[in-house]
C-alpha cells in the first residue's frame, strides 16, 4: 500500500480474455480475494483473474467504484445496487454471480442472487432448464409424477419464452 | 453451491415446488428438510395467521417462525396497499385456499385483505 505517497493506489486487473483494467485499491478490496492478495503483497503487478471475462469484469468494476463512493448508508447502497442490476439480463446476472463468488464479494453475491431469484419466480420449468443448461434427468413417468404432486404450482406461470 | 443460494432466495413456495420438476438434483435440494427450514426462516413472508387469541388487544396476531420458535410478527407488510398490519380481526371466509381476513390498521380503521397462506402473501 502506498500510504506514504498520499496518492490513492491503483491496481491493474486482468480478465481471462486479457483485458486490463485500472481500479482504485480502495474500491477493489471490496473483493476479499483481491484484498487478500493486496495484504499478502502480491498485488504489485497485474492481478490475473482467470475466472472472469472482460465484459463481466468491467461491470464488476463499475459496481466497485459506484458502491465504494457511497458513504456508510445501507439504504443508499441498496438503492444503488437495485438500480445497477435493474437493466441486466439473465446471462449477465449469471456471469456476475460467478464472478462475485470467485472474487468473494458478499454484497454483490447477495444482491445478484436475489435478483436472479426474482427473475426466476414466475418462470416455467422449461425456461429454467434452458437458462441454467440443465438436462432433464427424469423419465417421462417420473416427471409426470412430480408434476402431478404439485399441479397447482404450474398455474399462472409465464409462457415458455426466452425473456 | 450457487444454485442452492438462488433457490433459497425465491420468495414463493409455489415457485420452489414447481422447480422440483427441473431435475432430480433440484428436487433433492428443495426437498431437504434443512433447506426447507432455512427457506422458511429467511423468507420475508414467513407469516401465519394464528387462530388463538393472545394477550393482545384488537385481534389475532400473525406469527412468524424464527429459530424453530413461533413469535408474533410486529408488522405484516401488505403489498397491495403498501401499508403494515400486525394483526387481523377474523377470518371471514376461505375460497380455494385463499383467506379473506378482516384487518385492523394501526390507525384502528378496518379493511379487508385476501391472504394466500401458501405464499404467505396478500394478493
UniProtKB/TrEMBL annotation, chain A:
Pfam families: Skp1 (PF01466), Skp1_POZ (PF03931). SMART domains: Skp1. Residues 108-152 form the SKP1 component dimerisation domain. Pathway: Protein modification; protein ubiquitination. GO terms for biological process: jasmonic acid mediated signaling pathway; protein ubiquitination; SCF-dependent proteasomal ubiquitin-dependent protein catabolic process. Residues 11-65 form the SKP1 component POZ domain. GO terms for cellular component: cytoplasm; nucleus. PANTHER family: SKP1 (PTHR11165). Part of a SCF (SKP1-cullin-F-box) protein ligase complex. Involved in ubiquitination and subsequent proteasomal degradation of target proteins. Together with CUL1, RBX1 and a F-box protein, it forms a SCF E3 ubiquitin ligase complex. The functional specificity of this complex depends on the type of F-box protein. In the SCF complex, it serves as an adapter that links the F-box protein to CUL1. This is SKP1-like protein. It comes from Erythranthe guttata (Yellow monkey flower).
Automatic annotation (TrEMBL), chain B:
This is F-box domain-containing protein. SUPFAM superfamilies: F-box domain (SSF81383). Residues 5-37 form the F-box domain. It comes from the Eukaryota. InterPro entries: F-box-like_dom_sf (IPR036047), F-box_dom (IPR001810), F-box_domain (IPR052361). It holds the Pfam family F-box-like.
